[in-house]
Design goal:
This protein is an alpha/beta fold. The chain has 2 domains: 119 residues, Aspartate Aminotransferase, domain 1 (Alpha-Beta Complex), CATH 3.90.1150.10; 257 residues, Aspartate Aminotransferase, domain 2 (3-Layer(aba) Sandwich). The strands form 3 sheets. A 7-stranded mixed beta sheet has the order 2-8-7-6-5-3-4, sandwiched between helices. A 3-stranded antiparallel beta sheet has the order 9-12-11. Strands 1-10 form a two-stranded parallel ribbon. The two termini are 38 Å apart. Bound molecules: pyridoxal-5'-phosphate. The site of pyridoxal-5'-phosphate has 12 residues, from helix 5.
Length: 394
């Protein structure tokens, strides 16, 4: 059992089963309360900018701690796509370079930046086809060669929400000197993430899902050796080393970039977003990310097995290595646009909504995405509701 009073911290769970973190996470009461003093300062004209900037640095350190990196490897961003775009535009592309990705399983925000790189710099996109709902590591490895500059993939896909096996890909990237960029929007905060262990070079995240934070707030991890070599597409005061000069000091004639990933920071920060992320990560770290992962994956395995016993089409079949915090119902061919969405998926979605189970439909699949606030009882309730729906279909 997790050491939190769930209904007190997450009032949304009192009257509904919330299994929709892959869409939008819940914030806790603690997180909600963490923002108020700053808003109060703004309301009363008390300028807290200096202390807020110090707080941003504490949040940066906490982001780093959260994924086992160093604060000099963290840039503060608005969301995952900003992080992905920062990396995409910091490379000195040469015609004939290539980027490896699996677009059929990626979110649009991890496809569009690469289409732009392709058009602007005559770079080849090496498209890997999904294998039964997964990004196949062997096919990704096979696509990598000495002209591969970046491999961009989700740690966990938006749908069907399978984990990507990263180790062989990271090994191939190291061998060829390619940059492994992970879109970790669907995993950080829910599944334990250690960038050193995973061998990732970059990781882009928003705080709105597993990190239980606000919209318009995220971070980018960029391994120090890479960050020091990369050139930001945009510059502003917080991208450069100001030494002891105040932010308002005249701009020197030559630019000295900040060391590491903070060079990718641009203008002023989203202070409420940073306050929220600091507070929510505090709660997540107190429980422990490994413990959260254990709890959540045990719930998703229970949910997938329960659905399978009822004969429902669990994407990927029985739980296995691919199972993380998401269970999806539906046909994989609908997922890649090969088939129209099954009416039964609509009907089941409606049935759950009418019974206060909050889930979302994506690409023809019904997606159940879980976090630390979900429980065994909720999983059993969802399975019971599915049973009732099946009876109604007869
Ligand atoms: C895998 C993945 N990447 C990115 C996003 C969104 O990107 P951003 O945070 O930039 O809005 C989502 C969902 O909203 C997602 O599921």
């Amino acid at each position: 059992m997790l050491p939190l009073d769930l209904t007190k911290e997450f009032p949304a769970t009192a009257n509904a089963v919330y299994m929709d973190v892959a869409n939008q996470g819940l914030i806790s009461r603690t997180t909600w309360a963490s923002i108020e003093p700053h808003l109060d300062n703004r309301l009363h004209g008390r300028n807290d900018e200096e202390s807020m900037l110090e707080h941003v640095e504490r949040t940066r350190t906490r982001f780093a701690q959260f994924i086992n990196s160093d604060q000099s490897e963290i840039a503060i961003t608005k969301n995952a796509s900003e992080g992905i775009n920062i990396i995409a535009n910091a490379f000195d592309w040469r015609p004939g370079d290539n980027v490896v990705l699996c677009p059929k399983l990626e979110h649009a925000n991890n496809i569009l930046p690469w289409l732009q790189v392709k058009d602007r710099h005559n770079v080849e996109l090496r498209v890997v086809e999904p294998d039964n709902g997964s990004i196949p590591p062997d096919a990704v490895v096979k696509a990598i060669d000495s002209r591969t500059r970046i491999v961009a993939l989700a740690t966990v896909t938006m749908v069907p929400g399978f984990r990507t096996v990263l180790e062989p890909i990271s090994e191939a990237c190291r061998h060829y000197g390619a940059f492994l960029l992970a879109d970790a929007t669907q995993s950080v905060g829910i599944l334990h993430t250690d960038v050193a262990q995973l061998g990732i070079d970059g990781l882009a995240v928003s705080t709105v899902k597993g990190l239980m934070g606000l919209y318009g707030s995220g971070f980018l991890y960029c391994r120090q050796e890479w960050a020091d070599r990369l050139n930001p597409a945009y510059l502003a005061r917080f991208s450069v080393d100001l030494g002891n000069a105040p932010e308002s000091a005249p701009v020197p004639s030559s630019v000295k970039l900040r060391r590491g990933a903070p060079r990718f920071d641009v203008g002023h920060y989203n202070f409420p977003g940073m306050l929220a992320a600091y507070a929510s990560m505090g709660q997540l770290l107190e429980i422990g990310t490994a413990a959260i992962e254990r709890s959540v994956t045990s719930l998703t395995k229970r949910l997938a097995s329960g659905f399978l016993e009822l004969g429902l089409p669990v994407c990927g079949g029985p739980p296995g290595r691919h199972t993380g915090s998401i269970v999806a119902l539906g046909d994989t061919s609908a997922l890649v646009g090969g088939r129209p969405v099954d009416d039964r998926i609509h009907s089941l979605h409606e049935h759950f909504t009418n019974n206060q189970v909050i889930v979302s439909a994506r690409r023809g699949m019904l997606r159940f995405s879980l976090h630390l606030y979900n429980t065994d009882d909720e999983v059993d309730r969802v399975i019971d509701l599915a049973k009732i729906w099946l009876k109604q279909q007869k």
